[in-house]
Design a protein that fits this description.
- This protein is of the alpha+beta class.
- The protein has 2 domains: 220 residues, 2-Layer Sandwich (Beta Polymerase, domain 2), CATH 3.30.460; 200 residues, Orthogonal Bundle (cca-adding enzyme, domain 2).
- The chain has 21 helices and 10 strands.
- An 8-stranded mixed β-sheet has the order 1-8-7-2-3-6-5-4. The chain has a two-stranded parallel ribbon with strand order 9-10.
- The N and C termini lie far apart (64 Å).
- Bound molecules: adenosine-5'-triphosphate and magnesium ion.
- The site of adenosine-5'-triphosphate has 13 residues, from helix 7.
Length: 436
């Protein structure tokens, strides 16, 4: 196994009085799993983001457990356990809405003839007090702060990779040789950005330095997996910071290449501001426990490309609505070869774009009908976003703000003449469009 003197330290056991994890903060489900494993004579550790977040005083999203019990043995312990995929040796144990993922440590029965039992310290660990298997589990982890094991037997924390020190220093450090670990799984570069953004950490020097060399391998990742990661990055409460770090490490182009191209020409253009603003708003809404939808985010992320395409279509003679509809289809069609966008979200994004062109027409019955469209609210929010980011639509946005606030009589007054006059004059002279 490769050694990396910077990331690997002596394995340490931090006893209960010297760390801050309290059982009161661990979910009932996770505790039940850990205690049942212990009672049956197995090892049981809480690991990953749960341990990291508890040590940071944050509320964990979920709890993952590793054990030396075989999946079949786990299944016998819990009636609600379901085995997931042979290769991953996983069981899902369900307690009401909570699912605890229980992974079996490698290096038990079937791998026992594996000669490669060298620890992360380079030591042979066959008669190591912690056993071989857990030290091998370290190589299935990405960052040192994600690689701390809370041991239910004595409530201590096991640290094989200097995760405790990194946690205190606010450093995200990949375990082992960064180039090798990124090549193994390029998504780890995106995870680095996501965790750094969410936790307010910085990347370790080598962890950061290897990114330019490995970045292009992200192109090999299936669009569906990148989609999952994009959602975690942008709907996890730290979207704006993730977006800035993606730009900083020049990774954004592996997710949204057309927008990235446009930003790189002018990073201060309204288009880039719009995306940043959308991210800020999303973070704000999550902070306030308001619902957020991926469709709005995708609408914002792809808007620069859609606008560019729409302008080209208009110059070929399409109306503004036709142009934006065609552009939306084209851009999404190309986008899904990079990051997939489920149909329900792409339909909604197209509707938001299409309504941008329709909102320009503030006349007669149509304006009233637009108010009733299912996605009017999202489209209006999107219009505000465009105005905020410096697009020349502030007057139009204000018109729609006022129009919504009016009662029926006020609306009739606001529209008075617009629809009628137009009808009367049709064929004689084109009514000059309201300034937009
Ligand atoms: P979150 O708060 O997003 O749940 P997490 O650290 O728990 O963060 P998960 O994706 O739930 O992240 O994964 C759980 C653990 O599994 C991680 O902490 C890490 O140790 C390991 N892991 C997950 N994905 C990878 C990966 N791609 N490469 C290496 N280790 C990984
Ligand atoms: Mg997790």
């Amino acid at each position: 196994m490769p050694k990396d003197p910077e990331t690997i330290t002596q394995a340490t056991r931090i006893p209960r009085p010297e760390h801050s994890i309290s059982r009161a903060d661990i979910s009932d489900g996770a505790l039940k799993v850990l205690y049942a494993l212990k009672k049956a004579g197995f090892e049981g550790y809480l690991v990953g983001g749960g341990v990291r977040d508890l040590l940071l005083g944050r509320e964990p999203k979920d709890f993952d457990v590793v054990t030396d019990a075989e999946p079949e043995q786990v299944k016998r312990l819990f009636r609600s356990a379901r085995l997931i995929g042979r290769r991953f040796r996983l069981a899902h144990v369900r307690f009401g809405p909570e699912i605890i993922e229980v992974a079996t440590l490698r290096g038990t029965v079937e791998d026992s003839d594996d000669q490669d039992r060298v620890s992360v310290n380079g030591r042979i660990v066959r008669d190591n007090a912690y056993g071989t298997s857990i030290e091998e589990d370290v190589w299935r982890r990405d960052f040192s702060v994600n690689c701390l094991y809370y041991d239910i037997r004595d409530f201590s924390v096991l640290d094989f990779t200097g995760g405790m020190a990194d946690l205190e220093a606010g450093i995200l450090r990949i375990i082992g040789d960064p180039v090798r670990r990124y090549r193994e799984d390029p998504v780890r570069m995106l995870r680095a950005v996501r965790f750094a953004a969410k936790l307010g950490f910085r990347l370790g020097d080598e962890t950061a330095a290897a990114i330019p060399e490995c970045a292009s391998t992200l192109a090999e990742i299936p669009p569906a997996r990148l989609y999952e990661e994009v959602l975690k990055m942008f709907l996890g409460g730290a979207a704006a910071q993730s977006f800035e770090l993606l730009n900083h490490y020049d990774l954004f182009k592996y997710l949204f290449v057309e927008s990235a191209d446009l930003f790189s020409k002018d990073p201060l253009a309204p288009a880039a501001q719009l995306v940043l603003q959308a991210m800020n708003n999303t973070d704000q809404r999550i902070q306030e426990d308001k619902p957020v939808t991926p469709s709005f985010l995708f609408a914002a992320l792809l808007w620069p490309a859609v606008q560019k395409d729409a302008i080209a279509h208009e110059s070929r003679g399409l109306t503004s609505i036709q142009a934006i509809d065609a552009a939306g289809m084209d851009v999404l069609g190309r986008q899904i070869s990079q990051v997939s966008v489920p149909r329900r979200f792409s339909l909604a994004a197209r509707e938001i774009w299409s309504l941008q062109a329709r909102l320009e027409q503030r006349r007669g019955k149509r304006a009233i009908q637009l108010l009733g469209r299912p996605r009017f609210r999202a489209a209006y929010d999107f219009l505000l976003l465009r105005a905020e980011s410096g697009e020349d639509v502030a007057e139009m946005a204000e018109w729609w703000t006022k129009f919504q606030e009016m009662d029926d009589a006020g609306r009739r007054l606001a529209l008075a003449g617009t629809g009628q006059r137009r009808r009367r004059r049709r064929g004689r002279r084109r009514q000059p469009q309201a300034q937009t």
